[in-house]
Write a structure and sequence with these properties.
With 260 residues, the chain is α+β, with helices and mostly antiparallel strands. The protein has one domain (2-258): 4-Layer Sandwich (Deoxyribonuclease I, Chain A), CATH 3.60.10.10. The chain has helices at residues 15-25, 44-49, 119-136, 160-163, 171-182, 189-193, 211-214, 227-230, and strands spanning 2-7, 29-33, 54-58, 66-70, 75-78, 90-94, 100-105, 142-147, 187-188, 203-204, 217-218, 221-225, 233-238, 254-258. It has a 6-stranded mixed beta sheet. Strand 7 (100-105), helix 3 and strand 8 form a beta-alpha-beta unit. 41% of the residues are buried.
């Protein structure tokens, strides 16, 4: 089973590259973040035409939004409000065999890494803390994937020293993510198959005139699994060429294959 996660940054605007990716890679399940569309306007037809007939969406006008599209039967399971303000940032389903798949879009956190002057940063930290409380009580086999908006390792950013004070790589965010990972012995599948310091970026800013030449990337997108599920993982891939496709997202898809 191939499971993909991709922050698409508007699914309707980028439906062309989504269709291209699905035709070329043929994953079984696609988890999208930042769909930026209310549920009633979600573009079901292109996905159904490609065989993704099982669709679970949690949308919001112009902002946020998550979706899971599958060629295998799935059952809707949950929509957690880890942001505590009803933003559409999570949707979870149960896969055949009972494994849970949780798709999450962690807040970016603004520009200043100080909750006293930047409430968005505090919201991000609180979001991860609520995820940690959930994780501590988790007892079923689970895959947790999405845009975590945190690059935890020195090798996960283009310059550890220059980004220490930049939101997404600050020590306080990394410590929060470390606590989440430790709360249920989550296996970071990207680094399981591509140990640091291997290059494994998933995001490049739109601000760069030539993103490939400057290569100022960060690994913000992750796929984790509880140890029982991680034992069934057979490979992990980052689709970096998608960053050069027509009307690209600033994120690229990641995929883990499982022997289910």
């Amino acid at each position: 089973m191939k499971i993909v996660s991709w922050n698409i940054n508007s699914v309707r605007f980028r439906i062309g590259i989504v269709e291209q990716f699905l035709r070329e890679v043929e994953p079984d399940i696609l988890c999208l973040q930042e769909t930026k569309v209310i549920d009633g306007d979600f573009p079901h037809a292109p996905f159904r035409a490609l065989g993704y007939r099982h669709i679970v969406i949690h949308g919001q006008r112009m902002h946020h939004g998550v979706a899971i599209l599958s060629r295998v039967p799935i059952e809707e399971d949950d929509r957690f409000d880890w942001q505590a303000n009803q933003e559409a940032r999570h949707v979870g389903v149960r896969l055949p065999g009972g494994v849970r798949l949780e798709n999450v879009y962690v807040p970016a956190g603004g520009d200043v890494p100080d909750r006293e002057v930047n409430p968005k940063f505090g919201q991000k930290l609180d979001f991860v803390e609520r995820m940690t409380r959930w994780s501590e009580a988790l007892t079923v086999p689970t895959i947790l994937t999405g845009d975590f908006n945190i690059a935890p390792l020195e090798a996960d950013v283009w310059s550890h020293k220059q980004l220490l004070d930049v939101v997404s790589h600050t020590p306080i965010e990394v410590a929060a993510l470390d606590r989440l990972q430790a709360s249920n012995d989550w296996v970071d599948l990207g680094r399981h198959f591509h140990p640091a310091p291997a290059r494994l970026f998933t995001w490049w800013s739109y601000r760069a005139k030539d993103w490939a030449a400057s290569d100022r990337g960060r690994r913000l997108d992750h796929m984790w699994a509880t140890p029982d599920v991680a034992a069934r993982a057979t490979g992990h891939q980052v689709f970096e060429p998608c960053r050069s496709w027509l009307k690209p997202s600033d994120h690229v898809p990641i995929m883990t294959e499982f022997d289910f």
